[in-house]
Design goal:
By secondary structure, the protein is an alpha+beta fold. About 45% of the residues lie in helices and about 20% in strands. The protein is built from nine helices and nine strands. Strand 6 and strand 7 form a beta hairpin. Helix 1 packs across helix 2, helix 2 crosses helix 4 and helix 6 runs parallel beside helix 7.
């Protein structure tokens, strides 16, 4: 919804609803805004004044004053310019911080969105080759991954795709190996609780190569791609047990 999207660029709920009401029905007085939106009458003029100060509304002085929404294209253009300026400055600040690279460590991502975003970012950094395994037909399409793979092909990267069949009763898997070094191995369901291991450790890269190598069939049977990277069934098993324990304790218990 437009209200949610406006909140994502910095407006609060009442400001977003007021701007949309002005856009649809304006110009409005504070009283009229309170009658035509969910903005409380007691807050309507305060909210309208905040929109005016932010350049999202214009005011016609009077008794009472009337307010008109600034044109959306102008609002969007200014917001885009402001965010680009902030991102540019942030990039400079972050680049000045020297971060150690724990290349051989194993790190866990949680949530389908985060897993797919990290996989897409890794693919976008590929220089030579991308090996990817993911569920076959019938699974939800991964638009972000498809777009990243197409960009990799356009750059001249070799893209090797495999369709993976999860073990019976287990979640849909995804594995990615970029330039033979950076790896991701995990699951895509359930969306809120799935997780993946990311690492540049050679053991995980070898496990992914092994899962995809020598499979003439379009469907590859995947059994614990990350089991080679640690004891006790691999990091994914360990993380799954920890996550289940945290849910059982309501997030308040500590799991070592």
């Amino acid at each position: 919804m437009a209200v949610d999207l406006l909140q994502r660029i910095g407006l609060n709920k009442y400001e977003a609803e007021a701007y949309l009401a002005l856009l649809a029905d304006g110009p409005l007085t504070g009283y009229e805004l309170g009658k035509r939106s969910s903005v409380p009458l007691s807050k309507s003029y305060e909210v309208l004044e905040r929109l005016t100060r932010r350049g999202l509304a214009l005011v016609q002085p009077g008794d009472p004053p009337r307010y008109l929404a600034e044109r959306p294209e102008r609002v969007l253009a200014r917001t885009r310019a402001e965010q680009e300026a902030v991102l540019g400055e942030l990039a400079e600040q972050l680049a000045s911080i020297q971060q150690p690279d724990p290349a051989d460590g194993f790190w866990v991502l949680r949530g389908r969105h985060n897993v797919l975003t990290r996989a897409g970012a890794a693919i976008d950094e590929a220089h030579a080759e991308v090996v990817i395994g993911r569920p076959g037909s019938g699974s939800a399409p991964d638009v972000e991954i498809d777009a990243a793979l197409e960009r990799a092909r356009t750059r001249g990267c070799r893209v090797v795709e495999h369709r993976l069949s999860p073990p019976d009763g287990q979640s849909a898997p995804v594995i990615v190996l970029v330039d033979g070094r950076e790896s991701l191995a995990g699951t895509l369901a359930p969306a809120d609780h799935c997780q993946a291991v990311v690492s540049a450790n050679p053991a995980l890269a070898l496990a992914i190569r092994g899962a995809c190598a020598g499979q003439p069939s379009p469907a590859v049977r995947l059994t614990q791609p990350a089991a080679a990277v640690g004891d006790n069934g691999g990091w994914l098993d360990w993380e799954a047990r920890k996550h289940q324990q945290l849910r059982r304790t309501g997030g308040g218990g500590r799991v070592a």
